[in-house]
TrEMBL record:
Keyword Signal: yes
The protein, known as: Uncharacterized protein
Signal peptide (from-to): 1-22
Keywords: Signal
Length: 71
């Protein structure tokens, strides 16, 4: 009876140890992601501002294709 208990404990411990082992598959490492370059800014961003707020507002609100104020 004692031999059966020892044998069953030995088999159970071997099964538990083998079940806790890590799998043999290789772990994949995360790949570095390359960022794309930012898009070009819109053309209106690159236009120079008028030095005066009044002139800037007149140019923004003017329905004419040319500027409302002339230096």
């Amino acid at each position: 009876m004692q031999k059966k208990t020892k044998l069953s404990c030995a088999i159970a411990s071997l099964l538990l140890i083998s079940g806790c082992q890590s799998s043999s598959t290789q772990q994949t490492l995360p790949k570095a992601v390359t960022c794309q370059p930012p898009p070009a800014p819109a053309a209106w961003i690159m236009q120079p501002y008028e030095p005066d707020l009044t002139r800037r507002m007149l140019n923004e609100l003017s329905p004419l294709p040319m500027k409302a104020t002339v230096d």
